[in-house]
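[agent] plan:
  1. take the single chain provided in the ticket
  2. run structure prediction with default settings
  3. attach structure tokens to the ticket
  4. add a short note for the reviewer (M.T.)
[agent] executing step 1
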Amino acid sequence: MTLQSLAPELDAFPGTASVWCGPLGGSAVFTRAENELHYAASTMKVGVMAAAWRAAEAGRLDLDAEIAVHNEHVSSAPGGPAYANDPAYDSDPQVWDRLGGTAPLRWLIHRMIVRSSNLATNLVLGALGPREQAFEQVNEVWKLSGATRAHTDRGIEDYPARDGGISNEVTAADLAALFGALAAHRLASPAGSAAMIDVLTAQECRDDLHLGLPAGTRVALKNGWVTGERHSSALIFPPDAPPYLLAACTTGEVSDADACALLGRVAAASWAQLGVN
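[agent] step 2 finished; step 3 output follows
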């Protein structure tokens, strides 16, 4: 199976299915609707992590500082009310267990990635500074990555901003560019880049691209999902072939299980082309 052999299935997807796949530092070997915008869901959390690491390396932030764990966040809606996260909508109870106390910023970043914690994400955004400054730093990460369309302009569950038309969007090409820039040390020092890749490699939400990769494969990955959306972007390290990038996004009226299965097939096809010498 090759990625090209999946083209009919991707074409028949009831919505938009986007893919970018290629060797690290090289040109794509397969693309499909790679510049189409999708709601970002939790894929935006990689940019938030990179912004925090950059701020720390610039001396503006201490990754080991204790951060107050609270559930009241400043909306991106001009003059909008504060908003809160719903614990039932969060995939990480560990952060909620610390509500009313503190947690190290580095630990919050870790939970934001490996368990996709929404509350941790908004706390990390708050640590980056006032609302406008925080999102400027995240969007600077996209710019430095070479992304052309992706942007991050509100926190997770900021419904006042959403209702005002403020959103976060990505493309498969821009997600691949983000992971490529991280691996190329364009977003942080070599040590900082390696540390972020280690966090991504510790990913515990493994129900999409991982389905199509051999067990034990080293994969630095972040995915995101909401109703009608399932995206996943990864830097994949085959044991006997060069690393490669894979980003896949789906927006459409299919179940999450079906979208995950499709992404697994995309990953399997990518492995057949780039995972073995």
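[agent] step 4 note for reviewer: The CA atoms of residues 211 and 264 lie 5 Å apart.
[agent] ticket updated
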